C-alpha cells in the first residue's frame, strides 16, 4: 500500500513535469509535485510515502524580519544544553511571547493542516511537543552542524529564517536522499521526524531556522508505518506510540485542552483536569491530572514546564520563594518544592 501510493505520486510527478508550461521551483535530487500548500518532494532514494517531504511558504516578511531582529541583537541569550543526545544552540519559542502567539495561529491554520494533508493523518490527533529557534555558525564561531539523528516526534518542521545567500553550506540531508535540501527564507520543510536526517555544516556565515516537533496521538496501527525501520517496539515514554499529553504550556495544546473541557479556563480548567476523566481520544492526561491535583491541594510546582502551564492558565497564581523555588501564591514556604 505504501509503495503503491509512492508509485502513484511518481507518476503524477512525471505527468506534471510534461504538462507544465511554466518553470516550477527545482530542488536538487528531488522530484517535485505541486500541491495546494506548495510542493511535495520525492527523493531519488525514497521507498515509501512516509519519506515524502513537504515544502511551503509560511512566514510573512514582517514576522521573519522581526524575529531575526530579536535573535541577532547584541546580548541575545542562547541555550546549548536543552537536548541531551543531539543538543543545538537554540532558544524556545516560548521565550518570545509575541512569536509564541504568532506560531500558535500558524500551527492551527497552516502547519498542522499541511501535515494532515501530506501524511493523511487527522489534525485532531496532532500535538506540539517543542518549538525552538536554532543558530548554526560557520567559521568556528559556534555550532556549525547537527549529526545524523531522528527526532523524538512523529513529524517535524523546519522554517528557514534568513536568506540562504547569507551563509555557505547548511541545509537538511535525509538518509534517503543524495543532496541536502535548502529552501528560501520564510519557507517551511515538513517531514516525518523518524526519518534519519542531519543538519549539514555551515562553513561561512550564520544559518537561522525555527524547528518544531509534532506528535501523533492515535492508534498504534496508524503510528507504526511512520516508525519505519527504526529498531525495537514503539517507544512508550514519548514519541511513537506514546499517549501522554505533551507540553501543555504551548498555546495550541492549551487551546485543545480548553476545548476538550467545554471551554474551561483558569482554575476551573485545573479542577476539570484534576477531577474528570481524560477528555481527549488516545491521550493520557493522568500525569498532568496528578500535577494539577497536587497544585490545587498544596501548591506544589514540580517542574518548569508545569510552571509555564500554570502561568498560561492562572497567570500570577504562582510565585517564587527566597530560594527560587516555585509554588502557589499564599502557600507556606515548606510546601514549595521542585519535586513531587
From TrEMBL:
Give me the ranges of the annotated region Disordered: 317-340
Keyword set includes Iron: yes
Ranges where the Fe2OG dioxygenase domain occurs: 124-216
Q: Which cofactor names does the annotation list?
A: L-ascorbate
Range of residues in the leader sequence = 1-19
Keywords from UniProt, A to Z, are: Dioxygenase, Iron, Metal-binding, Oxidoreductase, Signal
Q: What is this protein called?
A: Fe2OG dioxygenase domain-containing protein
Q: What is the lineage of its organism?
A: Eukaryota, Haptista, Haptophyta, Prymnesiophyceae, Isochrysidales
